[in-house]
Amino acid sequence: MSSFAIIIRGAPCKPQSALSAYRFACAALAAGHQIKRLFFYEDGVYNASASIVPGPGELHLPQAWQTLVSKHRIDAVVCVASALQRGVLDEQEAQRHQAGSGNLLPGFTISGLGQLVDATLGADRVLTFAP
Amino acid sequence: MPASSPVVFLSSASAWSGNAAHACLDTAMSFAVFDVPVVLVLHGAGVLQLLPGQDGEHLGLKTLARTWGALSLYGIHEVLVEADSLQQSGYAQEDLLCSAAHVDDQEDPAAPLLLRIIEKPELAAIIASSKAVFNF
Predict the structure, then answer these.
(1) I need a surface site. Which of B79, B111, B121, B122 has the fewest CB within 10 A?
(2) Which of A113, A121, A130 is closest, CB to CB, to B27?
(3) H or E element in which residue A37 lies
(4) CA distances from B80 to A10, B8, B76, B98 (A)
(5) Burial class (CB in 10 A: 0-12, 13-18, 19+), B19
(6) Is B131 on the interface with A (CB under 8 A)?
(7) Which residue of A has its CA nearest to B135?
(8) What pLDDT digit, counting tens, does each position of B32-88 carry?
(9) Do B64 and B49 meet the contact criterion of CB atoms below 8 Å apart?
(10) pLDDT tens digit sequence for A73-96
């Protein structure tokens, strides 16, 4: 059994990268592996947005991530700098920046690159899914 | 794998093709802050990041050279440039910023940022011995 740190750098609307990350995470868990942390970076932060509305017939990837995170109690971290630049905000950040209301899905946490460092050092393997 | 295995950052984007070059340096500095050994490698169009005279002010963008100048303050004292990429770019080592003194006046004079040209076999060995590789 291995532990994985998974870095998601692609938006849910971009072909493959985020979806591949999701499918890999599902497969790893099904095979008995552990996910130390999901780290959503750059455009990957859109995977944690409640404002995403997929096209007809498309997988609602943010909701799928949310379900996976909740079911397996996975630490799902959204990079704060990437999130602020892209308008993915929790209530605290939305108030701090006077940017309306938060749109971060429950189960995700906004934090810094230190969480990426910690995940990289603590996991057996690090996988990046980039567009 | 030794506990001191480095984390390798491969940067293949120019300073102006999206945010990748900035994200690479930001991420590398974050690891360096936690005393993680960092190896920074420029290849492909990434070597263009070290051409002098680039300024993002008129584009409303951050100037990457300032970040290069700050790397030594984070304990990153060397940048590796892949030899074939440099040759294909049409530039030579002397065309590039090879010390923080050329990048930013705020450099630490005791620990200038040095440039080293490496061949692909050495890069492969560095990657093989690394804890993780991040590709930007």
Answers:
(1) B121
(2) A113
(3) strand A34-40
(4) 27, 11, 11, 10
(5) middle
(6) yes
(7) A128
(8) 999 999 999 999 999 999 998 888 888 888 889 888 888 989 999 999 999 999 999
(9) yes
(10) 999 999 999 999 999 999 999 999
